[in-house]
Structures are given as structure tokens and as C-alpha cells.
Design a protein that fits this description.
alpha+beta; 10 helices; 9% strand
């Protein structure tokens, strides 16, 4: 309270001395502001064309001059106060005792302590700011990334809503619900299981047919060997057509041909010429039932050498013979060629 009272007294004394001084700056402010340069004796182009550096130097010089005036004013004011205190009556001057000095010293020490604590708190705050600055920066970067991600997700949500609106326009009610989709999925699973079981059954049947064909091919090979031996015996014997020994041979050949027809589903066999024979088979596979496949075999004249083979009807079954025909022609394997083509046609591959 005493320090505030002293400050108020000092401010009041400064105001009184300022008002009693012979300064008329405040009184003549309007006249100073209304002052104009005498442009009659001054060159206008010279006044307007001054260098900004020169103007800055002039302003700096004026500021220095004003600072000097202020210092002189403060100094003169202090001297006036000092002289006033000295020449004034001793009774009017307040006495300054040792007790006042001690109290003033104590107040100054208290203020120093408060100032020291304030500085310490300021240093603590600055240290805390320095330690928290990287964390704040990381948090700012994270928040910025989260903001960017939120903007991106918002755009994606808008796009998804637009896509959903388009789908709703393209597919009006009634739409496929989750329950209907689940039921459809369950039905498809059951259907797939049934198809799988059917495929396994067909595969087993195909395997059984392949086994039967294999055994029939072996039997046919043995029959072919017997036929060749019989033809050889016929040529050696040179018997007439009415010979009774040809009847059993004819019956055996007829039975063999009937067996071959039943096993291979041979519909017709036609001799086109002396070196060309045409075989027509009826094929059943998983895709088509009762399809006709015609195989034309062409031999080299007066020999048993297979020259060419033409297969018709595999396109309807969706079967590609590939290189099977050429490979068996090069090997002169007629039986292998027939077996390979018929097995592929029956398997549907």
C-alpha cells in the first residue's frame, strides 16, 4: 500500500510539474497539424523525389533527438525535485528513518523473491513447452492424417451412396434380401453336392465302360489273330465255296462280328472300295445320347498299311481328337485308333 501511495504521489508531482512547465506542445497541437510547407520557394519535384533511405536517416536522427530531449526533461525534472526538497522547509519534508529503510529493504527482498519464483515458474513453463512441443507436433500430424482419412472416408461414403442409389434405380423392388440370398446359397450348395455325386457316378460308369472296352479290345485282338490264322488255313487248303469246313468258320466270324458290334455299338460297316472301309458307331456320353460317329479308314492298295483316316461327328459331341489320328496312322495301329477315338467320344473329352 505504501509503495502504491508513493507511486501515486510521484505521478501527481510529475503531472503538476508538466502542467506548470513552459511547454505548449499540447496546447498548439492543432496549429502544428495545420502547418503546411511553403511550396512557393521549394521545388515540388525535389520534395516528392526524395530518396526513402534519406527519409529513414532523417527519421532516425529526429528519434535520437527526441530521446535526448526526453532524457534532458527527466533529468531536469529530477533536479527540480531535488532542489525543491533541499530548499523547502524541513518540517514539510517527511523524515526517512532506519526503520523505513529496513521496511523498504524487506519489501524489496520480498519482491525479489516473488520475482525469482516467477522467473522459476516461467523457466518451468518454457521447459515444459519445449518438452511438449514434439508431442504436440506428433499429435497435430496424427490429427491431420485422421482428418485427411476422415475426408477420404466421407468421399467414399458419398460414392457408395451414389452407387447404391444407381443400383436401386436399376434393380427396383422386389430386391434380393439377405434371407433370400442365404436360402439361394443353401440351395446352390445342395445342387452342387447333387451334381458332384452325379459326376462321381458318371465317372464310375465311364471307368467301368473303359474296363469293358479294354477287355473287349483284348478279346477282339485274340479274335483277329484267330481270324488271320483261319484265313491262312483257308488259303492253304484252297477249298471250294461249298466245302463244309467253311460253315463253322463263317459262324465263328459272324459271332465275332456281332460281338464286336454289340461291344463297340457298331451300327454299320460299309466297303467303299478295295482299300477303303467306312464304320458308323452310335455313341452315348454325358452330353449327348445316341450320336453317330463315322470313321473312314483308307489303306495303301494291296497292303495292310493304313494311309489315312477321316472322323466325322466328333464336333457335335464337343470332342477334339487332337493328334491321336496322326499318331496311330504313323504307327499303323488301326485297333488303337478306333479304341482311342471311341473312348474319347464316350468320355466327352
Amino acid at each position: 500500500m505504501d509503495s502504491e501511495k508513493d507511486l501515486c504521489n510521484a505521478a501527481q508531482i510529475l503531472r503538476t510539474s508538466f502542467e506548470s512547465s513552459n511547454l505548449h506542445v499540447t496546447r498548439n497541437a492543432s496549429s502544428i497539424n495545420a502547418h503546411k510547407l511553403d511550396t512557393e520557394d521549394t521545388d515540388v519535384e525535389e520534395a516528392e523525389g526524395k530518396d526513402p533511405a534519406i527519409i529513414a536517416m532523417e527519421v532516425e536522427a529526429q528519434l535520437k533527438y527526441l530521446r535526448k530531449l526526453k532524457f534532458q526533461f527527466v533529468e531536469q525534472n529530477a533536479k527540480d525535485k531535488y532542489v525543491t526538497r533541499i530548499v523547502s522547509d524541513i518540517e514539510d519534508v517527511p523524515l526517512v528513518t532506519d526503520e523505513d529503510n529496513k521496511q523498504l529493504k524487506l519489501r524489496n527482498e520480498g519482491k525479489k523473491e516473488v520475482l525469482k519464483q516467477a522467473k522459476q515458474r516461467l523457466e518451468d513453463v518454457q521447459a515444459k513447452v519445449r518438452s511438449l512441443a514434439p508431442m504436440v507436433e506428433e499429435e497435430y500430424v496424427r490429427v491431420q492424417q485422421s482428418t485427411d482419412k476422415a475426408v477420404e472416408l466421407r468421399q467414399k461414403i458419398i460414392d457408395a451412396r451414389l452407387a447404391l442409389s444407381r443400383l436401386r434405380q436399376l434393380h427396383p423392388h422386389p430386391r434380393l434380401t439377405i434371407q433370400t440370398a442365404d436360402q439361394k446359397l443353401a440351395d446352390q450348395v445342395v445342387e452342387m453336392q447333387d451334381i458332384t455325386d452325379e459326376i462321381e457316378t458318371v465317372s464310375k460308369k465311364v471307368q467301368e465302360v473303359k474296363e469293358r472296352l479294354k477287355s473287349g479290345a483284348l478279346e477282339m485282338e485274340s479274335l483277329r489273330a484267330k481270324r488271320a490264322e483261319a484265313e491262312k488255313n483257308v488259303k492253304i487248303a484252297r477249298v471250294d465255296e461249298d466245302d463244309s469246313r467253311l460253315v463253322p468258320l463263317y459262324d465263328w466270324f459272324t459271332a465275332s462280328l456281332a460281338l464286336h458290334r454289340s461291344m463297340q455299338s457298331l451300327e454299320n460297316m460299309e466297303m467303299i472300295s478295295q482299300n477303303e472301309i467306312r464304320l458308323r458307331y452310335r455313341i452315348d456320353n454325358p452330353r449327348v445320347q445316341g450320336a453317330l460317329v463315322t470313321i473312314t479308314l483308307i489303306f495303301v492298295p494291296d497292303s495292310r498299311q493304313l494311309a489315312a483316316a477321316d472322323v466325322v461327328g466328333l464336333d457335335e459331341l464337343g470332342v477334339d481328337p487332337g493328334d491321336v489320328v496322326e499318331a496311330h496312322i504313323q504307327m499303323n495301329n488301326v485297333q488303337g485308333l478306333l479304341s482311342a477315338i471311341l473312348s474319347r467320344a464316350r468320355a466327352g473329352v
